[in-house]
């Protein structure tokens, strides 16, 4: 079973790239982020013709998450992170696919630091950690994946000294991520490749992709009952080099 996460950075603007990648990679489940479209603007027919059914949670101009499935049905559990009924940003969707509970997330960027956006990032992170602890306590096989907007360590960013006051690399952000992982989750990429330089995002500016000046901010966290099924993981880096591609590349895992 192949599961992927992909921040498309605008599903309509990147639709040809998304469809090309789906045809090439053929993942069974895909969590998408940054749809930047409401439901009436989602290209549902094109996705269906590509062989996928989907749960959509869109938002005008910003945010937006989805879970796509091929050959299996996703049964929605929730489309908001618990803990703040007034938070209307579409950043989380959770469903059961087969025996797996999959949470697709788009954690706030948090820049500029300091400021209200960074405060929102940390409060959202706290809610995520609380919800994740409950998912772990269920004992069910769970995957939390998406754009975390977190650079976990110095190896996960090109020239880390330039990022010390960026919301993605701030001490508070990394501590929140470490708290989450410390509950008992496993970072799939680092589990298989503990010391490799692996990036999932390259800025559109300063030829970041050409220089491989990237970040690793798209992650798969696996619960204990999933980690034993992990066969492979990787980043489809070449997709970032396609014309009119997102600034993120798809990240994937394979489970037995």
Automatic annotation (TrEMBL):
The keyword Hydrolase applies. The record marks 218 as: Important for catalytic activity. Probably binds two magnesium or manganese ions per subunit. One of its GO terms (biological process) is DNA repair. The record marks 248 as: Interaction with DNA substrate. The keyword Transit peptide does not apply. GO terms for molecular function: DNA binding; double-stranded DNA 3'-5' DNA exonuclease activity; endonuclease activity; metal ion binding. Gene3D superfamilies: Endonuclease/exonuclease/phosphatase (3.60.10.10). The active site is at 106, 147 (proton donor/acceptor), 248 (proton acceptor). Its cofactor is Mg(2+); Mn(2+). Keywords: Hydrolase, Magnesium, Manganese, Metal-binding. Residues 4-248 form the Endonuclease/exonuclease/phosphatase domain. The record marks 149 as: Transition state stabilizer. Mg(2+) binds at residues 7, 34, 147, 149, 247-248. It comes from the Bacteria. Belongs to the DNA repair enzymes AP/ExoA family. This is Exodeoxyribonuclease-3. It comes from Dinghuibacter silviterrae.
